Amino acid sequence: MDMQEKIVILDFGSQTTQLIGRRVRELDTYCEIIPYNKFPKDDPSVKGVILSGSPFSVYDKSAFKLDLDELRGRVPILGICYGAQLMAYTYGGKVEPAGTREYGRAHLSKLHAADPFFNGVRPGTQVWMSHGDTITALPQGFEKIASTDEVDIAAYRVTGESIWGVQFHPEVFHTEDGMRMLRNFVVDACGCKQDWSAASFIESTVAELKTRLGDDKVVLGLSGGVDSSVAAVLLNRAIGKNLTCIFVDHGMLRKNEFRNVTHDYECLGLNVIGVDASAKFFDELAGVTDPERKRKIIGKGFIDVFDEEARKLRDVKWLAQGTIYPDCIESLSITGTVIKSHHNVGGLPEKMNLKLCEPLRLLFKDEVRRVGRELGMPEHLITRHPFPGPGLAVRILGDITPEKVRILQDADDIFIQGLRDTGLYDQVWQAGVILLPVQSVGVMGDERTYERAVALRAVTSTDAMTADWAHLPYEFLGRVSNDIINKVKGVNRVTYDISSKPPATIEWE
Fold first, then answer.
1. Which one of 6, 32, 324, 438 counts the least CB within 10 Å of its CB?
2. Is the whole model's pTM more than 0.70, yes or no?
3. Could you tell me which residues are beta bridge partners of residue 78?
4. Residues 307-318: pLDDT tens digits?
């Protein structure tokens, strides 16, 4: 991407850093999230810098610090929460623990309406606070431009410079004019042209892939999901039959998924090898109950099967993956915390002595979908809900058996097909059924039963970083429950999971 102008977001470890990136992309502006200490000093394409929040306090000995003089005067800067506190603290202001943690909705008062950061922002607009410290005094040359009832210095700017700091989070949904503020910074202060789009991404990426790969052979592991499918179609456009795709069935896919998805891929003109390795995976998973061990076994098993198939191909030099931006950011988490292992990151390139090609690694999930549409892919492939790499193995709590997989496939098929038939599927980000390690008493006819319980899970989200449980109609849930209990042998109880993320996760394992 030659001289694609961009905003750089320096990540100090906040949970909402990715959300800042998504919002900037929604302004049709390219941005990159990089660790706070990795600013590209000699990159003329950087038009502005955003400093993220952080779990630390700026006065902690272990707090992440940055030489702000290297940024100041070069490009416009916006500090959010910790980023705002860091600038104020570094230049001689005061940051102190707030009397009580300031969390939740607040309203901007004493708004400096003439400041360009607040151009078009309504007085009294709602913002979202989430911090334990507060700025109690500003350095010389810094001026307050907004307050709330609880926070005196809710926003400031540096006099005569394009530098702003806000104590609230403009990137979150609850800040009503947050996008307007970000637009004022990204477009007006930084001068970004808003020319980042799915079409421009495809054009530049296809050209780049042609140059980078030349006549080299590439192998890609398909999962049936949106990311790997879009990566395959994009690569196919660039290098055609030099791409070979391998689709491994580990036995934990949805009902009839291997057959249906293979057919879809053939219709797209992809060169696909399908491998049924379910017996191997069932054998290796026998008796295993720990979620992380399941993921590791399936991850390693996938690598082994893929490696065996790929070695049958001649002269392959590249491994392509459908890795997307959240995978990369989470894998590079500066706090070093692994939430759960990723299915498609690590292992393969080293083992197979191949170079890695990840054409989607700069895109968020919704951007991947836009690229898929622009590539002319069928809607049912693009709108497919995310599905975990280990598949139903992490939706069966406890050990895995073919019988449990059959029960779950049948129950899941009723739920997903029901969502499709009633037009609810596209209103939900992700849905599935979880097989619980619980048996309960029931009555069928005149007989008592002692069979399994399942949980239906459906959430709404935009990026899987946060999610709310989907408020599906009671009539629909009742019908699905009846269908599952009547048609799926082995289930006599259906529950609905009404937990949000956080504190829960979308998947149960």
1. 438
2. yes
3. 50, 164
4. 889 889 988 999
